[in-house]
Design goal:
With 55 residues, the chain is mainly α. Helices cover 76% and strands 0% of the residues. The longest helix is centred in the middle third of the chain and has 42 residues.
Length: 55
């Protein structure tokens, strides 16, 4: 009985670790993707005074 309980606890811990690892990987990939799109959008900005500043 104790062996089955230990096996189920170990399975639950491994499953939770897998979910946390997947969430961490997704977070890193999405952060890098958002950062790359910010850099791409920044390069599209015109050089010179802004229209908001020139009134």
């Amino acid at each position: 009985m104790k062996t089955k309980f230990a096996a189920s606890v170990l399975s639950a811990l491994l499953y939770a670790q897998g979910l946390l690892g997947f969430a961490g990987l997704a977070t890193v990939l999405l952060r890098d993707r958002a950062h790359a799109s910010e850099l791409a959008m920044g390069s599209d900005m015109p050089v010179g005074p802004s229209l908001l500043l020139v009134r």
